[in-house]
Amino acid sequence: MQRRRTFLWLVALAAFVAAASAAAGIDRGARPEKVAFQLRIGNVLPFTGDLAAYGANLDQAVKIAVALQNESLKRLKVGGISSKLVASEDGQTQAAASVEAATKLVKVDKVNVVIGEMASGATIPVAQSVTIPNRIVQITPTSTAPQITSIKDNGYLWRILASDELQGRVLAQAAVGAFGKGATVNVGARNDAFGTALKQLFVAQYTKLGGKVGAQVSWNPTQATFDSEAGKLVDGDPKGFVMIDFPETFEKMAPALVRTGKWSPAKTLMTEAMRNADVLKKIGGPAVEGLRGTAPTSQGAPARAAFDRLFKQRAKGAKAYTGFEGSAFDAANLAFLAAVKAKSSNPARIKTQLRAVSGPPGIKVTFRQMDKAIRLLLAGKDVDYEGAWGPTDWDKNGDPGSAVFEIWKYGGGSITTSKIITFRG
Question: How many helices (H) and strands (E) does the chain have?
Fold first, then answer.
């Protein structure tokens, strides 16, 4: 009997000590198990082509994110885990070049995650031809075409900026505000996935609000001249114009519009790709002074101000800051946190954790609490990453759960924000 009591007392004591040790271990940041993997990231971004004004800076943002991740791992003495930007390839804002670049990253560089492209017309073929068939996670920082939502991606395609389903509504509201209720506007757009879809969305929303649409014109971004399209766009007597284009193409289109004598930038609304003061200065006053537009924005994002400072401190040889850099930064951080939670760099396991690290119910963290985030995830806890671009909170389709848009105006060499519109859920 005495032995039995002694045995039971020892079992109880052992259980108490184990529980106390576990609790103390978590408090001290102890790692519950040995985990070893390298997350291999590859960028496909536009260093040339229509969106070349943005690509290099987004690449810098990914490099900064990867550096921060490895610095945190070193501080925490997590020797088995690392993150690496294996290569950055030029997608040229084109489908064929982007597919070739992504294929190289997947087949040769053996990446687990592809970040890119910026343009929807490049992102979609990369997904359909490369990342989805090869079961590689792809996160596009800026592609907004609505069709991305419904692609059969088996959970491998994600995006940071919201669908143009929302921007179509914002652009229609901006047109009513700029030109008056019931006004006739002529609409022009580049003939690609982004331009075609957003033009259709705008027309549907604007007519729903009582507006009238006159001429509708599309153009091939690679054509040599735009005089014919410019003439069609100014046909009739519209109150204003809505144009959906990228900088390199608009730089060639603008002189043709000015030559018509019937067009004014002050009577024109454009979209986010043109929200770049350096680009507009280069094009020149007669074609851009007074230009207005809509754009997704990260104004008010949880970590925007801190990231702005970080980028300016760490970016090497960067172009003028555009505000879109945070989208690529968040893409890299979310991929890394999902890998840590999965305790693996296997894309099939990463994709199952992306939604978990991007939204509730986990403990909220920004990039400034990367140490804390890693420690929590390795201890089996949940985190909710609050980004430089926004909260993200990915839904079942890999779309962000909230979005903020602005109505902007260019004048005197700078861009100002006239209105902020927020969508939640």
Answer: 15, 14
